Amino acid sequence: MKKDYIFNVIKNSSNSLTAEEIYNTVSQSININLSTVYRTLNNLVEKDLITKSVRQDKISYYELANTEHKHYLICDKCNQAYPTDMCDIEKIERKIKKETGFNITSHTLEFHGICPECLKNAK
Amino acid sequence: MKKDYIFNVIKNSSNSLTAEEIYNTVSQSININLSTVYRTLNNLVEKDLITKSVRQDKISYYELANTEHKHYLICDKCNQAYPTDMCDIEKIERKIKKETGFNITSHTLEFHGICPECLKNAK
DNA sequence: GAGTACTCGCAAATGATTTGCGTATTTTTT
DNA sequence: AAAAAATACGCAAATCATTTGCGAGTACTC
What pTM did the predictor assign? Predict the structure, then answer.
């Protein structure tokens, strides 16, 4: 099943991937169609095996579910995404839950700015 | 200029709006085309008069810039967005800046879950 | 008042993602 | 193991928010 190829690519990647990136990688091993990639990704998301998050560029990024909580620092110059595990949002979530009764199940957090590399080159 | 109508709708709204919502509102006063709305919105964003943020639904939401920092609790049932001003991310930003040298200029934070209203009805 | 610069409307283009449909492949049933 | 039922997949067309080209209207300048 082609699903295994797709899932493996995601599993072996250290950062989140777009459908097209996954398609490109999988295509090197087997014949596959982009729509199959999308269908499979949606399937994996439904089964909670991977997560999908839409970034400010309006593109969906997929990554393995149940890994340590991660967020991304996205450079507006080079567009690279640097993962960070700093996230104290859980505290905020608890506070919100208490004060508003809203039952929060997930959150997305995205930082934008310029990465050290681009800062250097900007001189 | 039609820009004023658009800007006013945003200024008078207590929460963020989509291009279509703005279009619908402005249309009640004057004749206007959707593409004009989009063009104007991009213009206002460039001038830092309003901000645009892309949510998980892949739709852009616009709101007045330079207001107090706000984030949204989005109900996955009724899809309503409830603003909250709880946000201690500034602390996290400072920490990241210090530890990684990444120059953060903005961030987006979005909470998902079920709002109190829907929780009640879900019974 | 001619020349130049915006502002807009309209229709077509864009790009990521989805979907319909027919075929192939796998799984289940007998 | 063959028939039947279910699932996976390729291909092309559709979708939907947003953008863009172009031509016409309007304002601003000299």
Answer: 0.91
CA dihedral B65, A93, A88, A63 (to 10 degrees): -90
Phi and psi for B11 in degrees, rounded to 5?
-65, -35
The residues facing B82 across adjacent strands are: B73
- Protein-proximal positions, strand C, CB < 7 A: 7-12, 16-20, 26
Q: Pick out residues 38-97 of chain A having their CB under 7 A from any atom of nucleic acid strand D.
A: 39-40
Model pLDDT, residue B34: 98
Rounded Cα–Cα distance for residues B88 and A20 (Å): 35
* Mutation choice for A interface testing from B51, B82, B87, B111 by most A CBs within 10 A: B111
Is there contact between A79 and strand C, defined as CB under 7 Å from any strand atom?
no
Quick check: B101 and A113 in contact, CB under 8 A? no
Q: For the segment B9-35, what is each residue's pLDDT rounded down to a tens digit?
A: 999 998 899 999 999 999 999 999 999
